[in-house]
Design goal:
Layout lengths: L14 E12 L2 E12 L3 E5 L6 H8 L7 E6 L2 E2 L4 H7 E4 L11 H11 L7 H11 L15 H13 L5 E5 L7 H14 L4 E6 L2 H7 L2 E6 L2 E7 H5 L5 E8 L6 H6 L4 E6 L5 E7 L2 H13 L4 E8 L2 H10 L9 E2 L1
Parallel strand pairs: 3-8, 3-9, 6-7, 7-8, 10-15
Antiparallel strand pairs: 1-2, 1-4, 4-5, 9-10, 11-13, 11-14, 12-13
């Protein structure tokens, strides 16, 4: 019986991916624990977390490279392990290490991948041309992959993910090891693909997500600790601010004295004992009270300034702070 008969339609016609209670254990080690998230058609979603958080394990399960211990993942209504071929037709995957054969020419390699993915023979040439054009590789199509720079090899990796024109594009750490120019080029490429594909960008690099993603899922220690729009996550700590403080004569009791002030949530020393950063409530009088305390104790105030907490602060709080152990700390 055809797979289509067993297809479970997504709850929304715009829903491309459903992940429910997804769990993976390696013996006693739990790599991911009851992950739940949905992704809509055309979204660019950042799957963000520190190294070892469970990002690659999740991507391998979604793409059918690995079986979960429990839970399920569906792409376009097809269960990843009940209908793996249907899912693979709809997904283009760039693993952290691009799966390229360095002794092949670029266009020959892409044609080979297209055949593996079941692209019709009559469409092979146009599919390869499309992938080369989208990734700006046309000028090197007849070059050996081993003779390309790392940046171009990464483009070939993205091209193989694109060659079957998939609905969903999954990129796992696509800029790791690239120089700043190559990173900028890959980011621009992802932006160009936005709207034409649903994109999941798995990374531990925060600027990567800020540059290209509309929505973020943050994972830590195998559990989702936040998922929301970039704008909303950036505002999670809008009631908090950082106070940057520079003094002339630091004392041993500085951290204790500053930490005892009303509204101060944390005190951190900088590169030298003259520079300090305070986590504080976002109140107008807080800077005044800190400055007053520093001057009254003769520490010698040289500079004081404030800034609202940004997405980096939120990320660090969720993955290294107190709430890092609380699953599903925030939902959008």
């Amino acid at each position: 019986m055809a797979a289509e008969v067993f297809r479970i339609s997504p709850s929304s016609k715009y829903l491309v991916m459903e992940v429910s209670s997804l769990t993976k254990k390696y013996g006693e080690i739990q790599a991911i624990d009851s992950l739940n998230f949905n992704i809509k058609k055309g979204e660019v979603v950042g799957f963000l977390g520190p190294n070892g958080a469970g990002k690659s394990t999740t991507m391998k399960i979604i793409t059918g490279y690995m079986a979960p211990t429990s839970g399920f993942a569906k792409v376009d209504g097809y269960d990843v392990f009940e209908f793996p071929l249907e899912v693979k037709k709809r997904i283009g995957y760039l693993p952290e290490t691009p799966p390229v054969y360095t002794d092949m020419y670029v266009q020959d390699y892409l044609r080979y991948v297209a055949q593996l993915k079941g692209v019709e023979k009559s469409k092979l040439k146009s599919s390869v041309d499309m992938a080369l054009e989208k990734t700006n590789l046309t000028q090197v199509r007849k070059r050996l992959i081993q003779n390309l720079s790392k940046g171009f090899r990464q483009r070939v990796g993205i091209a193989q993910a694109l060659v079957s024109d998939p609905e969903v594009l999954i990129l796992d750490e696509p800029t790791v090891g690239l120089d700043p120019k190559q990173v900028a080029e890959i980011r621009d490429l992802i932006k160009e693909l936005r709207g034409k594909h649903t994109i999941i960008l798995s990374t531990h690099i925060l600027p990567e997500v800020q540059a290209v993603c509309e929505r973020i899922i943050i994972i830590n220690k195998g559990r989702i600790v936040a998922q929301d729009s970039l704008q909303n996550l950036s505002g999670l700590k809008s009631s908090a601010q950082k106070i940057n403080l520079r003094i002339r004569r630091p004392q041993d009791d500085m951290a204790k004295i500053l930490g005892a002030l009303k509204g101060v949530k944390g005190v951190h020393t900088g590169v030298t004992r003259n520079d300090w950063t305070l986590d504080a409530e976002n109140q107008e009088e807080i800077i005044e009270s800190i400055a007053k305390e520093v001057m009254s104790r003769g520490y010698g105030l040289l500079e004081i300034s404030s800034a609202k907490a940004d997405l980096e602060d939120v990320f660090l709080k969720l993955t290294y702070g107190d709430s890092a152990n609380s699953p599903e700390a925030h939902h959008g």
